[in-house]
Amino acid sequence: MVKIAINFDRQLDEETYHLVEGLAKTRRMKRDVKILSSMVPDKDMGVDGEFYYNPLDFPESGQSVDPSIVDYNTPPSCQPDLWLHWIPTKDRKQIMWNSSKQTVNIVEWLVYLVQKVFGPKGYCLSGDAQVTGSKRIRIENNEIFVNDRAINAMGILMNIMMSNMRLDLNTSVLPGRILKMEMSPGGKWAIEVEDTRSEVRTVLSLVENEITLVQQCNDVLFSYSGHLQLDSEAIEILWSDDGMRSAVFLNGVLVTVYDLANQRMINSTLNGDDLIPVPAKWGGFHE
Length: 287
Hints:
There is one protein chain. This protein is an alpha+beta fold. Helices cover 17% and strands 33% of the residues. It contains 4 helices and 18 strands. The longest helix has 17 residues, at 153-169. The strands form 4 sheets. Strands 4-5-1-6-7-8-9 form a 7-stranded antiparallel β-sheet. Strands 14-15-16-17-18 form a 5-stranded antiparallel β-sheet, with no helix packed on it. It has a 4-stranded antiparallel β-sheet with strand order 10-11-12-13, with no helix packed on it. It folds into 2 domains: 5-169, no CATH class; 177-278. The chain starts with a strand and ends in a 9-residue tail after the last strand. A hairpin with a 5-residue loop joins β4 (86-88) and β5 (94-97).
């Protein structure tokens, strides 16, 4: 794994360090700031609870349900997505991207942190990192360059807010939306049921560092066109006590079983026919 790290001009103060660490360890969800203010008085929660995190909920990756949550599957309007993978190093001198498998929103999250967290506190960031074979990030005194072209930070923040606004205005499920997610007992595995606007699929991921989901495989449950007639309440994901077998139900019908001990997946059809074993398509699970 290539190290992707950005330097601070000085060591982070304790408050800023814990803030970014807390954001990275918890699911970013749109929240009601008024309710948050009664739960955590005298603290700035930002827009839609963007700065909220609960250290007591770290074991659950900040996903425990409480009255402040407006939308479990929508981030605060100024944050790019549900998970932040930039995390400060323990010596507080750098911030590192901690996902080994994907770099989605790596630039957007860096822009957000510079504009909303580090910049306002007077920190200057600098560094150079090859993100992928075709993408290189460089930052000098908080100005970010992608492949040596300066980016419009305020424009990116506006695009993030407009994108999240479209989510709010659309009652149908949008591409890449997580309809349901459940972690295994012990927190080693996670299964998501996602909608891509043309397909509903299951995604099996390995959980690293308690917060990072590393996708192992995905499987299409069904395809559709038009409006998806499937509510998240109709989806159920159950795990065995040992966390090695999981079942996915849609509207009470068993559609997929993940058998992790034997490294295989078993499919059914939506009309409730017998389960049909499917050969592994993903080259094995990673322990």
